[in-house]
Every structure is written in C-alpha cells, then in structure tokens.
Amino acid sequence: MSAASADAAKAANAASPAAPRFDLPEPDAFTQPYWDAAAEGRLLIRRCGGCGTAHHYPREFCPRCWSEDVTWERASGRATLYTWSVVHRNDLPPFGGRVPYIAAVVDLAEGPRMMTEIVGCGDGGELRIGMVLEVAFREVGEGVVVPVFRPRG
User: Fold this and answer.
1) Residues 130-142 pLDDT 10s
2) What pTM value is reported for the model?
C-alpha cells in the first residue's frame, strides 16, 4: 500500500463516524465486572474454586474441570510475551487508522494466555519471546477501556 493510499484509508476511517467499530467490546451482565475493573486500571481473571486453575477469557465455568465455582480475581498485571505480529494492514474500522500495530498473545503471571496489543515499543524491533511485560490500559471509545501490554521497566 502506498503512503497516499494509507493516508486515504486513515482519513476514510476518521471521517466516517457512522461506520461500525470492530474494536469495541460488547459487555453483558456477566462480563461487566471485567470492563468496570479495566476502566479503573485493574485486570481481572477468573479462578476456579474447585481445581484452582486461573483462566481468561471470562467464562462462567472452569474450562479445566467444568466447575461453576469460579470467581473474579485481580491479576498482577505481569506477563511474558508468547508471540506477536506487526499488523501493517487492517481494513476494519478503526484499525486502518492505527496501523502498524502489534497484535500479541501473552502469558499472564497467573497462568492464562491472553490476546492483546503491545504498545510503547515503536515498530516492535525490540520484542523477544519471553520478554517481561506489564499491563496498561487504553480508552478506545466513550468510557470503554481495554487492557494492553507494554515492555516492563
């Protein structure tokens, strides 16, 4: 994609307020505590009272033992980088205006893997598998905050 085409795509995404957004979560009664915590700068995970396993994404049952004895728990916010990809093209609004960005999977200190975005590291040239990360939070819409990760230290 030429620089002119990229600029046109960014302008089209920005100038189209009626365009659907593909980066906004759809909270429901079950996940609302997760999104409320994110808005307050806290990352929550779920932990099973039956087998002790922590998991993410939020589910009403344990994916390991199927117990429904699961509760919300504040995560430490520490993670290590499992894998990543620098995204140079994404036609879904508003991602076209953000390229390039770094899509990633991280291993939370508590055990679960989480899909996220890595911020604060330029073009991603310094990223390494196993790199220590910490959670950060970004507002993506009117009061909607999502967890992202950045290099620690």
Assistant:
1) 999 999 999 988 8
2) 0.84
